[in-house]
Amino acid sequence: SYTGNGVIVGMMDTGLDHNHLNFQEDDGDLRITRIWEITSGGTTNLFDTPDKIRNKRTDTSNGTHATHVLGIMGGSYNGTAKYADYNRIGRPSILNGKNPYYGVAKGSELSVCIGTLQNNNIQLAAQYLYDYAKQQNKPVVMNLSLGNTLGSHDGTDAGSRLLANLGKDMLICISAGNEGGYPLSLEKKLTASDRTVKTILSSGAVRKGSLVEIWGDNASAIKLTFAAVNKSTGAIVKEIYSISSNTQGKRTYVGGNSYSNYSDVTVNADMNRYFGSGALFGGSSNISTTNNRYTLNIQIECGIQDAEIAPALIIEGSAGNTINAYCNTTLGGFHSLGLNGYTAGNAANCINGMACGDNVLVVGSYANRIKWPTLSSGEIAFSGNPVEGDISDFSSSGWTYSGRKLPDVVGPGQGMIASYSTPYMQKLQNGELPQEGVSFNQRCAEATNPVTKEANYWMEMSGTSMSSPFVAGVLALWLEADPTLTMDRVKEIIRKTADHDEFTAKNPDKWGMGKINALAGLKEILGTGSVNTVEADDAADKMIIESLGGKRYSVFVGGTDGFTVNLYNIQGAIVATAATNGDTAEIDASAFADGIYLLEVTGKNLHASRKFVVK
Description:
The protein contains ten helices and 35 strands. The chain is elongated and about 95 Å long. By secondary structure, it is an alpha+beta fold. The protein has an eight-stranded mixed beta sheet with strand order 3-2-6-1-7-8-20-25, sandwiched between helices.
């Protein structure tokens, strides 16, 4: 009954094939009503008519993330397709029939932002979507399947504050992050007898793009030293670079000989000697104006000239100050190498730094399936032996600076099959994307688009990037039932209705409030009002029919304290009946032939009917 009708769903992402079948009506009209393309510096192009949207080129043919994410959240194609039957794992079968890989809120309006994923652009995207929904007088859900471990984790940054403000009046889902298996976070409280944190950045080379942020919990200065250390003994061989005072955000660099022509880099003989001519280290410090906390921002890349040498950070601060350090996955983590006096990182607080503000729902991932069928390469299984229904190894968790544990809830995100960008798939088929690690032969379904005349495809992808749009789609269904839902009310519903099992019990910090249950949440919403009064809403809007298997069905009518169910055949004769004093009744049609019946519900101030297929 609920498809997200009357609700806007949106996102900020990249890699969108907006002409994909998954985003078309049955008559070929596009379901996407707005595309904001936001590029570097916030430059925005708005596509707001069917012709403009149809004729627009994809934002990139080198990616498909947005096509998959939007497909999960609101894709609607359930027409004829060739697909590998996901119910026949172990005996794969290629079928021609109704495509099973459509999205959650298949009746919603799609309005999306794409482009360059910079913080300011993400903020613009949220504002655009919010303003448009207000203009249309419709409820809205926004999904953000992006972010990283860096940041203050206290919700005081500009992006978190904007989302917290907009989140008072629209629902925002954010992925928890995919860093659950990496030692990217480090925390230590300094004492009078131990005012130093030492950690090793790598036992080998450090890749370009490696970033570290260090935060204190007050404004007192933190001294940072970059050093070459002996990997066997931990002895400091050479201190190469240090910041001992507030640089007010100005970054200084030291580098190897390759940077001799760079005016902002000081060539350093020790960088050359220990880490190579292409080595670079830069840092800045500041006191954040939004939270009055001292912070250091670091960029590093280096090789290793001596097998016994490793790059390390030495952090010194005041007694009582708690040091929190975060790095990105490019660096790979903080390490101790088993050396006395060195602190290793862990994955305990690898939560997405963008997800630490108020009025957002942070979503982790569990394994939806552990293998899946394909059209041409048999079935594929995940490495690492994940367990179906258990938390995904990659799913990030942690806490905010104030101690609020995250994620809030977990949804299916590992083994998700959804739409892929056609321009991307064409490059994949032609061997132009060898770095991607996926094959054109891994496609799970395909269908011909009657408008573009091209083949459209569906494939697997995993991550909290997939679980977050699933939950966002669920919220769109809930908003259709109650357009006034706030984030506080959403969390209350999840707290009451989320599933708990042996997996959530054994590792509760990873699961938040549990596994999202779309149907139980919908019933909770529908059950809050009464249809047994003269002022009742249309009871048909509060009726949900659920298969129990074997032609047995559960009939739920929210907000009622009793009703009778009658099942009529096409000749108009009652063939089955059931009554209840609550809000749920069961009806058994196992003795009847497959076909169309009429289901009628009657009670005090209550009358509703619906055509009903028994099969």
